[in-house]
Specification:
The chain starts with 7 loop residues before the first helix and ends with a helix. It is an alpha+beta fold and 379 residues long. Helix content is 53%, strand content 14%. The protein has a four-stranded antiparallel sheet. Strands 3-2-8 form a three-stranded antiparallel sheet, with no helix packed on it. It has a two-stranded antiparallel sheet with strand order 4-5. The longest helix is centred in the first third of the chain and has 57 residues. Helix 1 packs antiparallel against helix 6.
């Protein structure tokens, strides 16, 4: 090709066509790929800067997934606390019902051995006690009720100071039928009668046997304590089921949420043990209901405090999650500004290049006309 000589005008137009074709190919590639910098050959500085920004955006996207799991783990723990609180409220309701329960009337009948021969046996002391309150003693003489307490009315008078653990006992009555005395406590609290029993046939007063009718207060509360203890078992089971992605913040597991690629920014969340024992509740027989109610109130306070702590942690993680999403958008936009092509501009460029190519072809044709004139002369 070097032996072929073409005119300066033709050569100029030919170079213009070649440059136009090259720019058209570049413009068409940008339109096809959407990139103005698709390799380091196009623009090394923009290409590698954009690659670094994109890499960081990718790393932060992985952190975003981790944060999302952290958010769900905290939400699972919060739902667990809410459900445990409901069970605590139910337990409190059971305790209040037990507190308001009343035993049915209890009658205690003691068999008294009548004295066949007065004065042959020593005086006997019999004690009466309501629950755990102080006992009251009554002395019976050697003859058949020969003491001041020989009648039912006198015995009632002797027992006037008898009180229950909850205060003065109301409705205590004593009745007598032959050699039997019957003691009735209207409130139904436990009545204990103690004394030295007389031998069969011996003279004087002795406790030979007793029968109790009705339901004592302790017995009345048994059903409530069973329900209460079953609720505590449900709290134990629920706390073990509050797990997300293998982490249970209510069973003592800890959670660390990373906020940057180098792990220098993070939030460590300490787990708790929130089974029944962990919130201060244990099985009970309701011997002291007020103490159990106090424990339930303390458990509620503990649950609310921990719920507030988890809520604050959740707020932090969600804030960092939003920040990370925005940072990813910023990084990807920065990378795009360096590498992405403006399709509107490129389309306009292509149209202009097509026009230029058409004009260059026409110009080349005109430049060749002079040589064609010489050819005509030769013919």
């Amino acid at each position: 090709m070097g032996d072929i000589t073409i005119s300066s005008a033709v050569r100029t137009n030919l170079l213009t066509l070649q440059n136009t074709a090259q720019m058209m190919a570049q413009t068409q590639n940008r339109l096809a790929t959407g990139l103005k910098v698709s390799s380091a050959l196009d623009n090394p500085q923009s290409y590698f800067t954009a690659a670094g920004l994109s890499s960081r955006a990718t790393d932060m996207s992985a952190l975003l997934d981790s944060m999302s799991l952290g958010v769900q783990t905290l939400k699972a723990a919060d739902e667990g606390i809410k459900s445990i609180q409901k069970l605590v409220d139910q337990a409190k309701s059971v305790a209040n019902q037990a507190l308001q329960s009343k035993a049915t009337e209890t009658s205690v009948t003691e068999t008294v051995e009548a004295a066949a021969i007065a004065g042959t046996a020593g005086a006997r002391t019999v004690t009466f006690q309501i629950g755990t309150a102080s006992a009251v003693s009554v002395v019976f003489g050697t003859a058949t009720y020969a003491s001041a307490a020989s009648s039912a009315t006198a015995i009632e008078s002797e027992l006037a100071g008898l009180v229950s653990a909850g205060g003065t006992l109301a409705g205590l009555t004593v009745s007598r039928s032959g050699g039997d005395l019957t003691f009735t406590v209207a409130s139904g609290e436990d009545l204990t009668i103690a004394g030295t029993a007389a031998a069969t046939g011996a003279a004087g007063f002795g406790i030979a046997g007793a029968t109790t009718n009705g339901e004592t207060l302790a017995e009345a509360r048994t059903a409530f304590s069973t329900d209460y203890n079953n609720l505590l078992a449900q709290i134990d089971q629920l706390s073990l089921d509050t797990s997300f992605n293998g982490i249970n913040l209510l069973a003592g597991d800890d959670l660390s949420v990373m906020f940057n690629e180098s792990s220098t920014s993070k939030l460590d969340i300490e787990g708790v043990t929130f089974n029944a024992a962990g919130i201060g509740l244990t099985e009970t027989t309701f011997s002291d209901i007020n103490a159990e109610v106090t424990k339930l109130n303390t458990a509620t306070s503990t649950l609310r405090k921990q719920s507030s702590t988890f809520g604050a942690n959740l707020s932090v993680v969600q804030s960092r999650q939003d920040f990370t999403k925005n940072m990813i958008d910023v990084l990807e936009a920065g990378a795009g500004n360096l590498t992405l092509a403006d399709t509107n501009v490129e389309a306009a460029n292509l149209l202009a290049l097509q026009t230029r190519q058409s004009l260059a072809s026409t110009s080349l044709s005109l430049a060749n006309q002079s040589e064609q004139s010489v050819l005509s002369l030769l013919r």
